Description:
Helices cover 42% and strands 13% of the residues. The protein has helices at 17-32, 46-57, 73-79, 83-89, 97-106, 113-119, 144-148, 151-157, 185-188, 190-203; strands at 39-44, 63-69, 93-94, 124-127, 130-133, 162-165.
Amino acid sequence: MRGHGDTSTTDEQDLSTERQTEDIVEIHKNICAGEATPTFIIGHSMGGALAVHVAASGRLKTVIGIAVIDVVEGTAMEALTTMKHFLKSRPQKFGSVGAAVEWCCKSGTAKNSRAARVSMPAQIKKTGDLYTWRIDLSKTEPHWVGWFKGLSKLFLGCRVPKLLVLAGIDRLDTDLIVHLICHAVQEDSPEDLADTLAGFAFRNRFCRPADF
């Protein structure tokens, strides 16, 4: 994915909804090699917004379901008002990968240190003797509103089974809430989230339980 890990593109700052939707569609085409593979799209935070945009675009004809993790239009749009402050307040450099992971946990970005050791390295890059952020998010500001504006209507308009997982009841009244976790739901409570996604898939007959 653009802006993730070792992926390299000519314009690292082009994180517009349209560009990223196109990226996801092309990745899907390459993975599935043209086959009509039933696809259950799952996304967290901005990735959840992109999952909705991809499903709503109709570009992928094989989408059978969508799961959005801890993102709703109202709270996301409100959060954008403090995004600049957040980006300025976080460290711009780290002395080591371990230091970045430690900050991730101490700042409350994630509570599960084991998961943070997996996810954090992909968000930073080696710059000389130090580590800096993989993407300068401040330069993507022109795209922020486009990620989330109109998201609720798009989500509700998707004509496939839908699941919304939220980290707390302050986000929204919803069918499902996983309690006592932070925004990084998939990192802080991976087992609970996996059970929830599997249960949703079984109920909607996306798959069958494995025989052990």
